[in-house]
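User: Can you help me understand a structure? I only have the sequence.
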Amino acid sequence: MRHRVKGRKLGRTASHRHALLRALATSLLRHKKITTTTAKAKELRGFVEPLITKAKTDSVHARRYVSDEIKDRKVLQGLFSEIIPKVGDRPGGYTRVVRLGQRKGDGAEMAMIELVDFSGILKPKAPKKTKGEKKEKGTTEESKKETKAESKKETAEAKKELKPKKKTVVKPRKEKPPKEKIGVKEKKVKTTKTPQKKGS
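Assistant: Let's start by predicting it. Here is the structure, written out as tokens:
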């Protein structure tokens, strides 16, 4: 039983878990939103929000404190120059966790964690269309199809005009000499040499 034990182990050792949270915090501050598992997102929220609160007081001490966790200099500079001016008035609650459903591979619960003041992710839903609007859309689709067909015809005609016509050259046929009938071959008579006697 882990009664009253704070935090999730995430299947890692303490040092590995701390390195994971540092990396997630760095990428969250760089990209303003990241997608990860729900457990990691909830754990990251408790890790990154105290850092943002500490960064509100721009002092050497605060910069050193935050730089112990965030090792990337550009991200650290962005936190103090870009994020803190927007977040300054907010008394905590700098991040939002939005559930995204299950991952296909292993069924893990996925979530997106984002900085609240930098969200433009959740777009407002468009109002539902009435039946009349759908019909109008259909007519526009038909007109689009017609214009596409016309443009295709025009391009095909233009291509035909651009292609140079090949001149067909008729080559004269070479006449073969008529084949002469070969007569019956004359039979060759074999002549046998008579052996000559010695001394004759």
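Now, to help you interpret it: Helices lie at 14-31, 38-55, 60-67, 73-87, 131-162. The first helix runs from residue 14 to 31. Let me know which part you'd like to focus on.
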